[in-house]
Each structure stands twice: as C-alpha cells, then as structure tokens.
Amino acid sequence: MEGGGVDHLAEERQKSRFDVDEMKIVWAGSRHAFEVSDRVARLVASDPAFRKDNRNLLSRKELFKNTLRKAAYAWKRIMELRLTEEEAAKLRFFIDEPAYTDLHWGMFVPAIKGQGTEEQQQKWLPLAYKMQIIGCYAQTELGHGSNVQGLETTATFDPQTDEFIINSPTLTSSKWWPGGLGKVSTHAVAYARLIVNGQDHGVHGFIVQLRSLDDHMPLPGITVGDIGMKFGSGAYNTMDNGVLRFDHVRIPRNQMLMRVLQVTREGKVVQSDVPRQLIYGTMVYVRQTIVSDASSALSRAVCIATRYSAVRRQFGSQKGGPETQVIDYKTQQSRLFPLLASAYAFRFVGEWLKWLYTDVTQRLQANDFSTLPEAHACTAGLKSLTTSATADAIEECRKLCGGHGYLTSSGLPELFAVYIPACTYEGDNTVLLLQVARFLMKTVSQLGSGKQPVGSTAYMSRAEHLMQCRCSAQRVEDWLKPDVVLEAFEARALRMSVACAQNLSKFSNPEEGFAELSADLAEAAIAHCQLIVVSKFVEKLQQDIPGQGVKQQLQTLCFVYSLHLLHKHQGDFLSTGCITPKQASLANEQLRSLYSQVRPNAIALVDAFNYTDHYLGSVLGRYDGNVYPTLYEDAWKDPLNDSVVPDGYHEYLRPVLKQQLRNARL
Ligand SMILES: CCCCCCCC/C=C\CCCCCCCCCCCCCC(=O)SCCNC(=O)CCNC(=O)[C@H](O)C(C)(C)COP(=O)(O)OP(=O)(O)OC[C@H]1O[C@@H](n2cnc3c(N)ncnc32)[C@H](O)[C@@H]1OP(=O)(O)O
Ligand SMILES: Cc1cc2nc3c(=O)[nH]c(=O)nc-3n(C[C@H](O)[C@H](O)[C@H](O)COP(=O)(O)OP(=O)(O)OC[C@H]3O[C@@H](n4cnc5c(N)ncnc54)[C@H](O)[C@@H]3O)c2cc1C
After folding, report:
1. b/e string for 410-419 if b means 16 or more Cβ within 10 A?
2. Which residue ranges does the record assign to the Acyl-coenzyme A oxidase N-terminal domain (predicted)?
3. CATH number of the domain bearing residue 192
C-alpha cells in the first residue's frame, strides 16, 4: 500500500502465488467495503492532525486533551466531507485512539434505540446524532460489574412529582468504569433498580443529564470524575473512564427507557410483551462488534510479526552467505502461522455474527424473540473466544519479534495495552463462557424431547451419530477433507457438553452442580465456540471466491486454523475418543506440511489486510521492511537523547562517581 523507497520485502512479495488485490477484497468483505476502507485509511494517514506516534510521550492531561482535539476535528471532517455512517466508522477505526465517541455512538445511541419507546427515540436520538448531547453507558459500579442484577443504584418513583429519584445509597453503588463519563458526557444511560411503591422491579436504564449544557459543570446532586490511569502509557488512557454518584437526583418519569417495562403516571408497572433480556441488548450489539475488532487487532499484530520475521536474520549463514530469515524456522512458523490463520478465521466469523445480529434485530422489530437466546450465546461465546485468543496472540507476536518487539516503536506494547481490557469489558470472558455453557446444557437437556436444536447447535440433532462415530482419517491427506475435520470438532463439542450434562445430573441442586463443574463447563463452551469458528470458515469456502489462487490460500488457512486447534486441544479430542493418537499424529504431520505452503505467501497474506504504515504504527511492520535504519533514527529522537549528558548528572551521578573515586583512592 505504501509507495516510495526501496522495498526490502520485494523478493518476498514476488514469491506469493495468489492475487493479493482480490484477497484484499475478501478481507474487506466486498469491493465497496475495500474502496471505502482504502480511501479513509489514506485520508487519515495523510492528515498530520491524526498523528499518533507521540502518544506515549504525553502526560495524561496532554494525552486526553489531544484526544478531545482529534475527536472534534474528526467530527468537523465528517460534517465537511459529508461522510456516511460507514465512512465515519472507518474514520474512527483508522484514527486508532479510544475516545468518548466510541461510547456515545457504540453504546449510548444503541441503548436508546434498543430500549427506548418510539417517542423516546424521537426526542433523544436527533440530539445525540447531532452531538448536541454526548452520552455514555453507565452500568458497572464499584461493587458489581458482572452481576448486573446485583447493581445497587436506585431509581425510586415519586408519584407526587411524576419523577424518578436516582440515588447511590452506598460507596459500592458508585458507577465506576463507564467510558466517556469521567470528563466528557453530558448525559448517561444509567442502570438502576426500579423501585415503585416500595417494590423492587429489577435493573432498568434511565437517561440522566449529568452536566450543564452551558458550562459543563455537574448538575446538582451529581459527583463525577475520572477513575485514574490505566495499564500502559498512552493506550486506553485516552479514555476518561469515570466514577459517578447520585445524591437523590430527580429526572422526569419519561426518562426511564420504557420499551421493556412501563411505569404509568399513576405508578402502575406494566410489562410489555418484549422479553426482559432486551435490557441487555446493547451488550449483545457491542459484543458482536468486538468480534470484528478482534480480527483487526490480531491481523495488525500478525502483520507486524510476519513482516519483521522476514526481515530478521539469525544464524545459519552458509559459506559467508546471508543468515536464515527467522520466518524460515519451523518453530517460528508453528507459532506465527496459526495466528495468521486465526486473523482470517475471526474475520469470517465476525462477518457471520454481524449477519446473525442483523437478523435477530429485524426479528425483534417484528416481535419475534425466538432467536434471542442463540444471539446471546453466540455473541457472548465468540466475544470471549476471540478476545482471549487475540490478547494472547499480541503478546506472542511481541515475543516473535524478539527484543525489538519490546520497544514502543514496534507498536506491539501499546496494541497489547489497549487491547487486553477487551477480555474484561462487555462481560468478563469466563462469565460469558458460563452463559454459553448454560445455553448448551439447556439444549442438551432438550435432546430427545422432540425439540430440534437449530442455529449454532444444529449439529446436536445428530447426537446419536456424533456420540459414537469414529474419525475416518487414515492418511495425512484425509485431514484436508472439511467433513472429516468438521465431524471431529462436532463430536468433541457434543461429547464434552454431554459429559458435563451427565455430571450435572448427579447433583440434587443444579445450581450447586453448575458451580462445582464450572471449569469443565467453560471448556465445553470453548469447544462449541471453536466449532462455530471452524464451521463458518468452511462455509466461507463454499462461496464463489474469485481471484487467482485466493480460494486455495484460504483453504490452507482454514486447515491451519482447524488443525492447530486440534493439535493444541488434542487432550480433548483424545479423551472423548473423537480421534486416536495415530490420527492426532497424522493431523500434526498435515499441519507441518501446511506451514510450508503458507511460508511463500505469508507476506502477501498480511499485505492483504491493506494497512497503512500510519495505522500499523510500527517500525518493525513497515511495508518496505526498512527496519534497521528507522529503528536507529528513531532511538535518537527519544527525549532522553535531547542532551548527551542527562539531566540529573550533576545532582545524582557525579556525586556517586566522585564518591566511588574517593573511596578507591583511600
Ligand atoms: C474519533 C471520533 C470519530 C467519530 C466517529 C463517529 C462515528 C462512529 C461510528 C461508530 C462507532 C462504533 C463504536 C463501537 C465500539 C464500541 C466500543 C466499546 C468499547 C467497550 C466498552 C465497554 C463497555 C462495557 O463494558 S459496558 C458493561 C458490560 N457489562 C457486562 O457485560 C456485564 C456482564 N453481565 C451480564 O451480561 C449479566 O449479568 C449475565 C448475563 C452474566 C447474568 O445476567 P442475569 O443474572 O440476569 O442472568 P442469568 O444468567 O440468570 O440469565 C437470565 C436469562 O437471561 C439470558 N440472558 C443473559 N444475558 C442476555 C443477553 N445479553 N441477551 C439475551 N439474553 C440474555 C440468559 O441466557 C438467561 O436465559 P434463560 O433462558 O436461561 O433464563
Ligand atoms: C477498559 C474498560 C472499559 C469499561 N467500560 C465500561 C463502560 O463503558 N460502561 C460500563 O458500565 N462498564 C464498563 N466497564 C466495566 C466492565 O464491563 C466490567 O469490568 C466487566 O463487566 C467485568 O466485571 P467486574 O469488573 O465486576 O469483574 P468481576 O466479576 O469482579 O470479575 C473478577 C473475577 O471474578 C470472576 N467471576 C466473576 N463472577 C463469576 C462467576 N459467576 N463465575 C466464575 N467466575 C466469576 C471473573 O472471571 C474474574 O476472574 C469497563 C471496564 C474496563 C476494564
């Protein structure tokens, strides 16, 4: 994508055996998506206002102000250029800096859309769309995050004044973590226990104004601020995660989001026919976006590690010739190529999840709630699986880059620091896996009742076969048959779920049993989610994919993804009797051969992500591979090198040196 100087990776690029431009379109999702993405990426890269290479040198205050500046400038550009929603979303992506706008557009607006009545949407959405108000999603408290039903903030209906009184009764009820809350938001969708006539009706969302629209001061009864520095310099510190306390703050009754439950003027609580779980709908939406984001973060780390692995040479010089490129070491390949394959796998499962989410949203609008449990289980499970894998992968990519990977200029430390909270926010990954496990146990318990499992659990309808089938792989090549691979994953997932269900049935108290077996249940959930990813990759390959060699590369990556999982989790596959040790060894042999097929295409496969050097933000991952001179020059730019003799020499170094000298003379 970058033009200019000498291309140190040119030889690598010539080795590839497929049409990279066509692969770029597959990666982007469509030709249109590619064109939008490419255009916006260049726009951001060429605008000095979006410079980001100085982030980790700024103090928190400077960093935050800089983010405010960028967000305001981005908004101005969105208006000036009349960007569509798709283009604006891409702009946010390539600016690559967490900001309050993420929560405004990503959670505040969707919460009103999903949980507000038509009337409420008409009132609040135009204000939010024009950014005349800025909102956040204030759910988590100091004492409770995962356990939403345990939230303590109260919203008590006062029939005298037709208002709710929002209150933080305890220290632990302080809202804690919401992004955009600390310093920016004028409004929040705040989650609180609805109390009417002394009766607790559970947690609901309320639109609460926090700050004056004139001078930005907190309104009476509101205490609000930032919760302090987070992991890493730069990184997520561009975000003002906040603390908020309410001291009997009054809001009009019509500011409770009432799509699920209404409170009338008379104080009557009316449940609509919309299921309660819709209150959790915003989280379902965001979890779905987080899966796509995982493929972006992972592909970015993999792009850096792959390019650098082709540039870096260690050992193996023959007769004074060049040393071996580290990418040619089999160990490097076995660590790197599964991550490359995972990036593609997560991309495709993300595309599918987006489709699933759109489908469920359309059904909800037509009052069909039947697919909500499936959407919840898939978004929760895939959010958990992909973010855990991506966080681990970024750290692995750092190690794959050796010492230089630890330098800020590699781009990997900041990427890691910014990314890892994805394992926690929008649902702790273990808590989410246990939600999937509940869904699986329910599905297994209904097998044989005549109710056919559908969607992601449809494979369970073949339980009789999958519980006793034997893998047919006899030769290495058999592991390149999608049906063989899929059946092994289906059998493993089902057998693990059924084993959990059988163990659960031994407990007289199911909740006690669930708690006792929760580690096994989480593993069964992982097996189910891995099956979803594998099956969506296989489905992708059934589509018509144009471009010379493109489909073949994707096939190779699909098998790399599947067989590396099979290798990594062979304990599961063997202990459930899905494969034999001999078959595991054949699969591993096939995997090694696949790595050799990926090798000549590796650079082109990461070029297909079409990332600009600006977006990558990595000296090691530069498109032209010109790593060493840039690293060398960059080092001299560090503020510590502004002076040859460091500040502090006279106060702290010279006296120590002199003292040592005096001691030595004595
Ligand atoms: C730079 C400027 C540019 C400007 C550019 C402008 C344009 C920009 C355009 C777009 C930008 C978009 C950006 C989008 C990115 C967004 C980034 C976000 C960043 C991340 C922020 C993070 C925010 C947060 O973290 S918010 C807080 C999240 N909190 C949690 O996730 C809490 C987790 N806990 C829970 O979800 C629940 O408590 C629980 C599920 C664990 C348990 O709930 P419970 O006690 O009620 O449950 P049960 O287990 O008893 O379940 C009851 C029943 O309900 C079902 N269930 C549970 N959850 C759901 C659900 N979500 N949906 C449906 N059903 C659900 C469950 O299965 C049970 O069902 P049964 O049938 O078994 O009864
Ligand atoms: C960067 C960041 C941004 C955030 N932004 C927002 C925001 O905008 N708005 C908002 O409302 N919130 C936000 N949050 C809060 C976030 O959603 C919560 O932190 C998250 O849901 C996890 O909840 P917790 O902190 O209560 O974790 P805890 O539940 O306290 O987790 C602690 C440990 O306990 C384990 N655990 C908890 N329950 C169980 C269980 N039932 N079974 C087994 N193990 C369990 C977990 O696995 C974990 O290991 C943000 C958090 C972060 C880090």
Report:
1. bbbbbbbbbb
2. 19-134
3. 2.40.110.10
Residue 239 lies in a domain: yes
Round to whole Å and give the CA distance between 376 and 439. 9
Q: Output helix, strand, coil percentages for the chain, rounded to the nearest 5.
A: 60, 10, 30
CATH number at residue 522: 1.20.140.10
Residue 659 domain flag: no
Choose which residue among 142, 383, 424, 516 to substitute to test ligand 2 binding: the one with the highest number of ligand atoms within 8 A of its C-beta: 424
pLDDT tens digits along 90-102? 999 999 999 999 9
Per the structure block, which two tokens stand in for 103?
């929560």
Among all chains, which residue has been given the structure tokens 């792989």? Answer: 473
> Of 78, 115, 426, which is best to mutate to test ligand 1, by the most ligand atoms within 8 angstroms of its C-beta?
426
Ligand 2: nearest atom to the Cα of 144: 26
- For residues 166 and 116, the answer to whether their CB atoms sit within 8 Å is no
Domain for residue 115, yes or no? no
Residue 3, pLDDT score: 61
Mean pLDDT value of segment 444-465:
94
Tell me the residue range of the domain where 551 lies: 463-607
In a domain, 624, yes or no: no
Query: Has 85 been annotated as catalytic?
Result: no
Q: Is 427 in the pocket of ligand 1 (CB under 6 A)?
A: yes
Going by pLDDT thresholds of 50, 70 and 90, the confidence category of residue 1 is: low
Please say whether the beta carbons of 298 and 346 come within 8 A: yes
